[in-house]
Design a protein that fits this description.
Mean pLDDT: 87
Strand content: under 5%
Largest sheet: none
CATH architecture: Up-down Bundle
Oligomer: single chain
Order of helices and strands: HHHHHHHHH
Shape: elongated
CATH superfamily: Phosphate transport system protein phou homolog 2, domain 2
Structural class: mainly alpha
Radius of gyration: 19 Å
Number of helices: 9
Number of domains: 1
CATH topology: Methane Monooxygenase Hydroxylase, Chain G, domain 1
């Protein structure tokens, strides 16, 4: 990061970076806790995730206010302006990740007390672990100014799509085997879709962070292997 003659300018930029890091840590915690609550039918943990969403919203508002104030006072240019505008965009995606984690937590009660079948629970847990590594990884790469790592993270979204397809197929199997599973499996399907969407927001963050660091855009095309989208179009 370029050092400025006015030390407070550097501190303003550093504070925005710290808020991005804090939001990244909180979003990762919310994703992890919401999935754990879902698979363990832990209503108390689910409620904590729902409460954490208010903290996430407050952090986004603080970042927006700091960014707008910095633009008004400092009139940043070039890389500085990219950093501030990019931070606003990344914060919006991180806040949305928090919303999606909250949505998963809200379905814990609807899924019910019945334990999720072991094989299906393992698949959802694996998908959550992959998404979680993406969330933590993209913030770490941004803070470390690792452009190559951000490019790799963007491409790795394909793995999340593949996991979602596997979960979708397993859920359909359980619903066809026993109609009594339909209600719980439908909620689990929405939760899996929320995890897939979190992966999409990580991709958005990676693209914005890459632009902030390099001043260039990643290629517009990225792999998408969500076979359910293809199937929906061909029906």
């Amino acid at each position: 990061m370029v050092e400025h003659t006015v030390a407070s300018f550097d501190e303003d930029l550093a504070q925005i970076d710290r808020l991005i890091r804090d939001m990244g840590d909180l979003s990762g915690s919310m994703v992890s806790s919401s999935t754990t609550a879902l698979l363990q039918s832990d209503s108390a943990l689910a409620q904590r995730v729902i409460s954490d969403d208010a903290i996430m919203d407050a952090k986004q508002r603080e970042l927006d206010e700091r960014a707008i104030t910095l633009i008004a006072r400092r009139q940043p240019m070039a890389q500085d302006l990219r950093s501030v505008v990019g931070a606003i965009r990344m914060a919006a995606d991180l806040e949305r990740i928090g919303d999606l984690a909250k949505n998963i937590a809200k379905r814990v009660g609807a899924v019910g007390e019945t334990a999720t079948p072991k094989a299906l629970a393992q698949t959802i847990e694996n998908m959550s672990s992959l998404v979680l590594s993406q969330v933590y990884g993209v913030v770490s790469a941004y803070v470390g100014r690792d452009a190559e790592g951000l490019s790799t993270l963007r491409a790795d979204d394909e793995k999340v799509d593949i996991k979602y397809t596997a979960v979708f197929r397993e859920l359909l199997t359980y619903m066809m085997e026993d109609p009594r599973n339909i209600s719980a499996c439908t909620h689990l399907l929405f939760c899996a879709k929320n995890l897939e969407r979190i992966g999409d927001h990580v991709t958005n963050i990676a693209e914005n962070a890459y632009y902030v660091i390099t001043g260039t855009q990643l290629p517009p095309y990225r792999p998408k292997s969500d076979e359910m989208s293809v199937a929906a179009l061909t029906e």
